[in-house]
Structure prediction request, 818 residues.
Amino acid sequence: MEKTIAIIASLDTKEAEVAFVKEMIEKQGCKTFIIDVGAKGSESIVPHIRAEDVARAAGREWDSIYDIPKHEMIVGLLEGIAVLMPELYAQGNFDAVLSLGGAQNTTIGVSAMKSLPVGLPKLMVSTIACGQRTFESFVDTKDITLMPSIADISGINNLTRTILSNAAAAIAGMAKHAGVPLKSGQELIVGATLMGVTNTGVAEAVKLMEKAGFQVISFHSTGVGGRAMEEFINEGTIGAVMDLSLHEITSEMFGKGFSTGANNRLTAACNAGIPQVVAPGGVDFIDFYAKELPQDLNKRKHIYHNSNIVHVKLLEQEIVRVGEIITERLNKSRGPVTVIIPLRGLRQNTSPGEALYTPEVDNALIEVLHRGLRRDIKIVDVDANINDEIFSKTAAAELLRMLEQQNME
Amino acid sequence: MEKTIAIIASLDTKEAEVAFVKEMIEKQGCKTFIIDVGAKGSESIVPHIRAEDVARAAGREWDSIYDIPKHEMIVGLLEGIAVLMPELYAQGNFDAVLSLGGAQNTTIGVSAMKSLPVGLPKLMVSTIACGQRTFESFVDTKDITLMPSIADISGINNLTRTILSNAAAAIAGMAKHAGVPLKSGQELIVGATLMGVTNTGVAEAVKLMEKAGFQVISFHSTGVGGRAMEEFINEGTIGAVMDLSLHEITSEMFGKGFSTGANNRLTAACNAGIPQVVAPGGVDFIDFYAKELPQDLNKRKHIYHNSNIVHVKLLEQEIVRVGEIITERLNKSRGPVTVIIPLRGLRQNTSPGEALYTPEVDNALIEVLHRGLRRDIKIVDVDANINDEIFSKTAAAELLRMLEQQNME
Prediction:
């Protein structure tokens, strides 16, 4: 069946560019569905959705958005597009989304894309996908593909023709030959969290689950992955977890560092009541950028992870607070939970003689968990490091046991 | 003709994923050309280029890279891939590049992509295109498209299948239906620099050039654009410039702020000897992130550009230094130069009564330019703001005059 590409752009300034990509996309056998997010409309292109309609989706009843202050207009369009896109998609108006523009249009374009399911093709051609900007504000936890435009997108010249041709071909290719949104299916999918310093242990547990016939998706708990996993839990795509790297909780507590960005971790699985095997992997350190090291660094054990990032061991009172957060959140769980505690280190480099070996800190955490966790939460102490084989085996065995029990009920 | 996609990946850890995208790409009628950048090779896939061959391109004669320290190996592969890719491309081995992987593979993949011409399709599927990372280190000034993988790329599960299917379809679509590398053609292309606060004046000058029949590509001089333009000059794609926004020179002098990243501006056009119309647009302020404002802010005029960025007016001694840099660089020019000086403000918000109105600072710059520029460099003082019509007209008229003169010679 013919596929349709939604094009989100400001027709008042990007009329020629939209006409160009529209023609390119149609040449490749797809249809287009045009959403105008510019204030002043266009002479030659009649959009399927006008900017006023977008704003109206957010409850703004403007006859014309021409006279609204620019800031207010952008807020209206941002709110509106996030509401409108899932509706338009559910009605079958498009199979993929392309957007192109500068700062304002990029903000609106990615807001639209974030509201749509993973797997649905999303391509943002942006003048500002370069330089010092971070991915955070564009991508969030979604599969938003970004194509830097290099130059201003103003008129069709040799450079914009080259870039926009590639963009049109890429989005049409995805819509025609791939672009199947990820769905919560019948099959149970297991989510797992890992990071470089817990990778050995978690990856081995993942392999054991796969050998037992389960599909596992692994997420890096370095500021985005944990959040992405929790969204998949909320959507029902992931039905059980091996949440073995809670490092993002430490980052949340500090509010800064390399792995910030995933707040309120552990809540989705607890709310959903799905089986959870949890371990405090990587909660014993914070990853600071080398340029923003804490002032009391001389009091702290630390190790350079690479030239940009320093891993700094927590102090006792800090890890106690982390433990309290974990306890508080897990105690709200509606489903079965097993907490596995590796007694000989929560990450790499924590064995005797290694840079982050600090048993008194780890023990402070272990005590908080033992004391605070609800009685019906099973705790398994493993006399090993998180990257040791016995840890991986215990984690997989516990989850398999829970899933079996769930099946029997 | 059948198109070929180069796939850059570490076969030791990404064998299954490479096999998957290879099959998807071939289904769409393209061939693949596999470049292994992993240390340990693969059992089932024989690459066209082995990691040892990549390292050898950088002069490293390793029989096996299995026993080399990891850091040394990565440096060898990074250097090698940048040398090897243009050679392989020139020999006709591929028409597009796809790469997939984590931190190490992403570094190598984008290094390969940076070495290839704009327009040749480039798609990086990366676990680290998310969170706090900046575009700078991935994209540079090239059209490198980035697809975040959301989860770890480890094995084929529902999520990786979805992401990698889209990636394969996008790169095949680009290779088949677009993907024409930008070339330095017969036609003269004019480069122009602008930014938000000089946009009105420069955009009008661009329109006048277009009316006169010239193709113009505009670049945002906010840290990347100016550098991209200079690369196009070096490659011979751009043959004349309206370099009317030199703000990046101020950022270079301060070494920080939002627009850092384009160093040694003005040098490419001077070396190439192409016609230049230059104006000190936007050199009178630095755009600081709100969190890193200068300590003596109370002495300085400033204005919030948005909630993240503050535009801070330079002090007199600072703009004098900027003027000296401009003078020094332009005085090395091998071709014709006209400098246009807008006497009533180098950007928005500099008219009497506005936030950045500071004639004594602007005048200090004007004096340095008048005093220091080589006698054969034409200076045109315009009694207007850079965003006034007379400025745009003067800039376009000067460049048209130079191009006419060049034609007559």
Observations:
- The domain at 189-408 of chain B is CATH 3.40.50.12030 (Rossmann fold).
